[in-house]
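Bench log. Compound arrived from synthesis this morning; before running ITC I wanted a structural hypothesis for how magnesium ion sits in the protein. Inputs:
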Amino acid sequence: MTSMLPPALQRHRGLIVLAAVIAVLPLALRNDYHYDVVINAGLNAIVVVGLNLLIGYAGQISLGHAAFFGLGAYASAILTTTYGWPALGAMAAGIAVVGILAYVIARPILRLKGHYLAMATLGIGVIISIVLNTEAQVTGGPDGMSAAPFTVLGYTFATEQSWYWLVGGALLLTVWLSTNLIDSPIGRALRALHGAEIGARVVGIDTTRYKVLIFVISAMFASFAGSLFAHHTPTVTPSILGFIKSVEFVVMAVFGGMASVMGSVVGAVIMTLLPNALAAFEDFEPIILGGIMMGTMIFMPKGLVPTIAKLLRRKEAP
Amino acid sequence: MIESMIQFILAGLTSGAIYALVGLGFSIIYNASHVINFAQGEFIVIGGMSTVALLAAGVPLPLAIVLATLVTMLVGMALAKFAIQPAKDADVVALIIITIGASIFLRGVVQLVFGKDIHSLPAFSGETPLNLMGATLMPQSLWVMGISSALIVVIAWFFNATLAGKAMLATAYNALAARLMGVDTKWVLLSAFALSALLGAVGGIVVTPITFVSYESGIMLGLKGFSAAVLGGLGNGVGAVAGGLILGIVEALSAGYLSSAYKDAIAFIIILVVLVFRPNGLFGKKGIDRV
Amino acid sequence: MSLLKVTNLTKSFGGVSAIRDLSFTIEAGTIHSIIGPNGAGKTTLFNLITGVYTPSSGSVRFNDREVGGVEPHKLAELGMNRTFQNLQIFHNMSAVENVMVGAHLHLQKGLLHSMLRLPSLARSERETREQCWELMDFVGLAQYRHTEASAMSYGALKRLEIARALAAKPKLLLLDEPAAGLNDTETREVDEVIKRIAAQGITVVLVEHDMKMVMGISDHILVLDYGAKLAEGTPAEIRSNPDVIAAYLGTVG
Amino acid sequence: ADPVKIGAFLSVTGPASFLGEPEKKTLEMYVDRLNKQGGVQGRKIELTVYDDGGAPDKAATFAKRLIQSDNVDILIGGTTTGTSMAAIKIADPAGVPFISLAGGIDIVDPVKKWVFKTPHTDRMAAEKVFSDMKKRGLTKVALISENAGFGKSGHDQSLLVAPQYGIEIVADEVYSPKDPDVTAQLTKIKNTAGVQAIFNFGFGQGPAIVTKNYKQLGITQPLYQSHGVASKDFIRLAGDASEGVRLPAAGLVIASQLAATDPQKPVVTAFKSEYEAAFKTEVSTFAGHAYDGLQIALAAILRAGSSDKAKVRDEIEKTSGYVGTGGIVSMSATDHMGLNLSAFHMVEISKGDWKMVD
Amino acid sequence: MLLEIQGLESHYGRVKALKGVDVAVKPGELVALVGANGAGKTTLLRALSGVQSISAGSIRFDGHDITRLPAHKRVQLGIAQVPEGRQVFGPMSVEDNLLMGTYRRRGAKPADDMERMYDTFPILKTKRKQAAGLLSGGQQQMLAMARALMSNPRLLLLDEPSMGLAPLLVGEIFNAVERLKAQGMTILLVEQNAFQALGIADRGYVMETGDITMADDAQVLLGDERVKAAYLGL
Ligand SMILES: Nc1ncnc2c1ncn2[C@@H]1O[C@H](COP(=O)(O)OP(=O)(O)OP(=O)(O)O)[C@@H](O)[C@H]1O
Ligand SMILES: Nc1ncnc2c1ncn2[C@@H]1O[C@H](COP(=O)(O)OP(=O)(O)OP(=O)(O)O)[C@@H](O)[C@H]1O
Ligand SMILES: CC(C)C[C@H](N)C(=O)O
Ligand SMILES: [Mg+2]
Ligand SMILES: [Mg+2]
């Protein structure tokens, strides 16, 4: 059925479905809290889509991505309040700073492989979080700080509804850019260096350059989402960039499906909604959450979306 | 100020020996499967908590220790059997997510079974500090260091000198070939988890008098243990211990001479610097991919 | 002018020299074979020429430019490409995508360009895929056009690497045991493929233990033993060289 | 009639579970009990509790959920200063009365229209400790605090008020919540010339480790803790090392030692025995903070005659002379806590129990 | 019959790689299996060793039904394999690789066997402390062969044992196979070098896309026109 679509649309099946879901979802959202959860899911999804470019496609793990998310958030909070910058300016500055930082650290650490890379990124995340926690004069310390309202061209995003559309749009943009990137020679180069690094180098791919490139891009996506988060959340505190948060991002990516842009979105949404949905189970929450995580990965080791897509394809096939 | 220097180092050795014990647990499972078991910290908690509960129920300490260790090993084997083995086609990241799920799950179970209180155990040989050139050390720290050293010797012997140990390594390097050699790889996985659960339990029991234990202790210990194992070189027992001790000593010296607020950050900076120069940790083997 | 000139090349691992003081040249447009016992250093030599290893000493000149220690991707840009004895397949991709990676050098790689997927990119992707399919046909993999690399047998993957290397449009192509794992009939097919590659003006360096193939298609043969040159010459000269017979060929050759 | 809806977000797990868990138990026990007795004004009480794990961002989300989705009439909670501050940003603009159970002075200073709190502030704890030190002639103090929410804000408040008591902070060290050993920091303090007393701000296992290491190093200067350790768990964990440690605490933990004339005595005695009968563990002041919060809320609802949010808020602000576990609470438009130092006792640990020294 | 395979089927996902294979090997026999790339030879050997799932059919070994037996128990029964792609334990030393070959031979004295292997492949002795992954391709192939022989098997499955070996050594490998046969070992040999394989084999099977299409005495197959055209390059 989908194969009847023109190729351009077919490439963006996921994007179209996502847009449709975003368009009709408000019908099911009954109050600001619902919006709040969905908005957070959307913001997480932006980070995870970017992270999956790095982990799922290029095969380079990062256990420190929450730091980039957090840096973006703090950049927006600090620049808009302490220094009175306009929101978009602060956001751009945050993305630029994170991009530069990611570039500087990427070269030395991306020589590392596997768990060693995981360790290094984790370490960088922890160091950044300690700095933000300790330099209280600038960051508000453990109590954190708030960003100014998100005002663009005189319009202030104040209601949850307005935020919903903003984040929805941002997510669609992220997904669109990422899908395009994956579907280009660059995307192929990323997957190739994941599959066989020496093989990739010998056919002409500067693997270091591509690893750095994708690390920087995914860090910038995280920073972008972090900036939005800062304006939406009441307070930015160091807990948003801790090690646990980084692990959560990775879990979302793997849970939804490695090397799957839509998988990232689905993973982020489910793993954001799940704890909220399970909150009512009180003491049983961790048992159920841990159980679901294990069960899913045991039975769908490739993650939700790729597994389901495979099942569907099997049905569609004659 | 040589006295305080010694004191800092003793403090570092105490924390470091604890990290080392956890790091060893990571190394064993890594050696058998190349999985990083993020539930390693939970083994420590289960060991410590069960001992506390058994003691409270009137079981004498030595028996409580044995029983708690068995309980933890059972949990470890159950984890291998029901969560790791069934996911046979999963790649390493998926397995890591499974162990993260397992750690959340086990934390929930511990919290339900034992509650959320923080517990301690009596020190094995009293609470009178030992004096060492003006610096002091709790006897329990010696227990931790002694047990770590003993375990590392046993583990090094197992992996270097026994066929069973080599079979475990072989399974991680190439499971297909190991099976073709007649290695029961399922059993290897099971025993690796049992072994590292044992290590976790023993670790949990000896460190509880120093650091206490609660259902959540596993997170921080797991993080430090992982750092120790990676710093030393994954899969290398000596490395894990060295990594743990270095981590502990760097933390203590930084707290003592530089800044207590930044001591953890300094420890991670040291790890980063080491990794930049030695991408496989201090004692890790260089990758041997030939083309 | 020779296309490749190796002078006094040495590579040691720890104390052991895998290549020692080796010098030879390869003329453009020829098929040049390198043979020698197992462990003689043939693959190591390939690794040195293609930048996978850095020489311990000595020089490698490609197209009259010193390339010892230059990174592999730069050498690929200069027109060098190879296949591997220990396959380097991208198992996470389809067969044709593996070949398309080979074409990477010749594709548009602008970041913005890619992220916005400008129409020219979509067009070039389509064309590249067509060309890569043709390359697969060329090496005899027509039936694998829509197959995932992970589902191909060993022999098929060997040819896939040849197609991938060809996609880079190299001047110099180094093949490390392309016929290993192929039966005699299949070997003859690969033989044909290599001849046709050479006919297109691509210089081929061949490492192979199949003497029928080597003797049949080589213009020139270099024999290595313990990392050093044992003999050099035309197939006829090599076939009758007593040292080569003793060290390598035996009576089978 | 519609039930009265109370929403709570507490740090039942996470680093502050030491505090959040007894808070939750207390709320559940009393709401249950009241419902059995017929509720308030014939209306049942519906209590919804969420566990924020000590994370401010989660606390904010749960506050939103309680207000928007569960439509609660009043919010209780915020086990920690951090979670409370995050929730304030939601509750205050939404116009929902909110009683925090955390210590940070920032929660009620400056006064926010809808926000109240029950425990003594960290500033008061510092003041109480410093005045005790001053009385004993200890003026050169080493500060060691936990590198996280409560410890950090306690640390800041201590630096702020020290000069008023003529106290000089001569050493200032921190530790992380789960550090297994802090002897390095304490050695530094020990080697600082002139230190006369040590003051530790933190809760959970950290202070117990500080205390044990303090003993191990044989430090002789007196050790003070904050009200963050006012739970028997602290004594249990620190063991012998806790002998002689002083801390400020509300009357609850020393119920039996209060003067017979102390108006708090019957209240704290009753609460203590009810709590201990129900849960078989010794009561901590944190349970008391929750108890006070609930009582103040219910009293206000009773006086308001409805659960109308604005009316309830006004009534909370008018709370006057309420005798709670933390002290006698009299709030006003400028004081949304209503406690002074008089109900804050200096307690010393002796023979494994609390001993009132002031 | 030492080995009896009946109606064996195996799948990779939805692709059927074996479509009902029947093969029988008598004790002491040397049987060659030839076929084009992708015919399913490797799949068959994997299925025999128990590392490839089977969807139909049966395998009997020495009278036992081993169709569902786990891999390690088959090794115990005496089935060893030199797998395609060598599959050495890369980071382990050559010596430890050989030791792993004795894993299911409790009580055996590996030292003597090891010396015998070193006699056959002297290069392995020089490299015995070296990590196997650093050996050259051909050296690894020798190691894989030696490692399998360390288990002193009753049935030896060889998947292209001569791949990547220098001509002298190819001869040596075929000689070794003949010697083993002379000592009474039963061998199932998959070889692309069909000419030589059939030359030393008692019988041969030809496999095409998952089916056995011919089965006969090796000499007969060597003379068969279709075999000549398809596999011998004649
Ligand atoms: N990275 C390395 N470290 C140590 N020794 C190495 C390394 N690479 C190669 N060697 C050694 O160098 C020698 C040459 O190996 P090489 O792979 O080049 O041989 P080859 O001629 O290609 O042999 P084959 O025909 O078996 O493929 C071998 O003895 C090998 O063990
Ligand atoms: N992992 C796999 N997934 C899917 N299909 C596979 C896989 N491995 C092999 N196949 C397919 O199964 C069939 C049989 O492959 P097999 O490797 O057994 O062939 P072979 O006869 O050993 O070939 P070669 O001579 O090239 O080694 C082939 O069509 C191959 O494409
Ligand atoms: C001692 C307590 C009142 C501390 C308080 N829960 C806080 O974190 O601020
Ligand atoms: Mg080679
Ligand atoms: Mg095969």
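What the model suggests: Chain C has a mean pLDDT of 92. The first strand of chain C starts at residue 4 and ends at 13.
ITC booked for Thursday regardless.
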